[in-house]
Amino acid sequence: MKASKQVSLRRIAALVAGLSMFGPFAIDAVFPAFPQIGAQMGADKLAMQQVISVYLLTYALMSLVHGALSDALGRKRVIIGGLVVFILASIGCALSRDMGSLLLFRGLQGLSAGVGYIIGRAVIRDLYDGDDAQRLMSQVSMIFSIAPAIAPIIGGWLLGWSHWQGIFWFLVAFSTLLLVVTCLWLPETHPPQARLSLRPARLAQDYWSIAVNPRFLRLALAGSLGFGGLFLYIASAPAFILDLLHLNEQQFAWLFIPTIGGMALGAYASGRAAGRIAGARAVRIGYAFMAVAAVYNIAYNALAPQMSVPWAVLALTLNSFGVALIFPILSLAILDMYPRQRGTASSMQAFSTLVTNAVIAGVLSPLLSRSGLSLAIGAALFALGSGLMWKWERISQRAQRNTPAA
């Protein structure tokens, strides 16, 4: 029975992680093609950055809807609909011949890309709780972390074999495969009797009650700011690799392999810690790694006469390990706050992360990616903000426990 349960855990983890991958994969796969697209369409670096920020903005806006739709219509139906829209939008990107058309279809990609990531977490919590839920969330995080790391590498390879349009045709093929597998293998985990109404008044009330909940805000900001330090480097990948490290389009692995290695190890450690180490202690360990990474990164960039690999990317491994260690615990804490509205709660958490990422990609990355030290300081401030949110949460929980019942 135990062996069968473990097989089921791995199967669900692999399926949900695959669904979670296509959204972030589509963000990063296009990075190596920036020079080629810009040259063909007459777009400068700032204009090319909007290929990312438009995607993230529409991703963030629609993320508020995906979870509520899944609470009302079922998880599987909404995921299938999102995949169909993503496939059509990816075809539109591949066929675009001007910047306006490309940005339009990138926006449509963003509208649909969040279904797997957002609803997948609700699927996990529908099926499992306690230590099993943390193990499964950690396995998903470990597989999910592969997407932003391998995307630019695959994008660079595709550029070597074809033009930039090949990246979007690859996304069409990948999301079509996911659609087939979802139709065949994904169970419906949210039965009709548990579904909620789509009445606008009730939805607005649900959104508002979550948005103004101080505990939700602390946990959501702890997660979004923690990941924000990593995403600053991900969004700045073209400038970091091509301009600061003076590498070429086929060497994006120098940024993403250290990141994926740290995230995979951190997610694995989080899963192994479930049932062995208290969640609060695991989070403290994660923040310790993030603090060491921040101090090293600032010191290296301030003192090194010239940035070079592997030393320039060592901090990313330490930081991503810490982020991956804490993120499953923060996500489960949020989902457990709203057992009947897990999809909506997952949407609100994703919205917090995606708005943060959109600001990073559209505003902070162009400003900070001009020097390694600026990126290091920015990443450190994100880690500090995340740690302060978690500290606030712990103080609030202790105060609540020590308050006598009325």
User: What's the CATH superfamily, by name?
Assistant: MFS general substrate transporter like domains
Beta-strand percentage? Answer: under 5%
Largest sheet: none
Poorly predicted runs are 1-7
Number of helical regions? 17
Can you walk me through this structure?
This is Bcr/CflA family efflux transporter. It is a multi-pass membrane protein. It comes from Stenotrophomonas capsici. InterPro entries: Efflux_drug-R_Bcr/CmlA (IPR004812), MFS (IPR011701), MFS_dom (IPR020846), MFS_trans_sf (IPR036259). With 406 residues, this protein is mainly α. The protein has a single domain, classed as MFS general substrate transporter like domains (Growth Hormone, Chain: A, Up-down Bundle). 83% of the residues lie in helices and 0% in strands. α7 packs across α15 and α14 packs antiparallel against α15. 54% of the residues are buried.
